[in-house]
# Entry
Amino acid sequence: MSVDPLKRSDRTGKSAVAQGIKDLVISGSFEMTPGRAIDARDLAPQLPAGMPVYVHHSPRQRLAQSHAALKAIRAAGLEPVPHIAARRVASRSELDSFLERAAGDSGVSRVLLIGGDVPQPFGPYSSGADLLDEGILVAHGIREVGLPGYPEGHPRIPGPVVEQALSRKLALISAQGLGAYIVTQFSFAPARVVKYCGELARSIPAIPVYVGLAGPIEARTLLHFAQLCGVSASFRAMQAQGMGAIRLFTHTDPREQLAAVARHCLGHESSNVVGAHFFSFGDVARTVAWMNREITSDGDLDARVQ
# Structure
């Protein structure tokens, strides 16, 4: 987690931002659904070796359904990172069995731990902190734990409660000798994202941050997932600015949002943003193709930044 791509750049202006965009993608990650294990083999040649690939844990899926995807990701030369939604884990034995097999068969050494937005827990864990408190992750060789960050706030949990929960989880992770990092939720408003990243740099400067961005999908699909993920507040705010603003941040290319993040990092020496995380919303091939174009871009870098 020592990657610090933007601060090593000595370029200026558009060139620096363009290079920053490229570096954030190279140092980034993306996600896929458990049912698309076959995609890993086809996608890997377009990506840097060892790039992290996250695998969903949705309310309709048991943890064990992730194994095929995790194994395929590792076989393709990428790093498998399972989501674990604490409130959706049915039992300690389910989690124990999953982690043992994930580590043994797929070499999993880090997870993204989320609460899991279901009204009632499926099993013994009401929060990510409850799961961490058992020490089960470190017992199975997990070395790093990703935690969610919310630039627009959590849709159902008050801000002070979210902050207290993050502090508790970071304390538990540190006490167990594990590494920690933040993966933020996507947003329609770059200003909110960079403001949040600035707050994280001040409050937890040693914790790396991956900025979540919507991959290149159609606006209608993106708006649907925005409703599900609780980030529609920024969309409603943009409505007051007219359709031009809405089109700008809901079209099929995330470059403008990524450029805002790159500018923030270049202008703040204390920034702890180290990469971008792309939400593919089921269209992982399209997201990876876009990432590949950014990674392999060369002389036209300046032309890519407005």
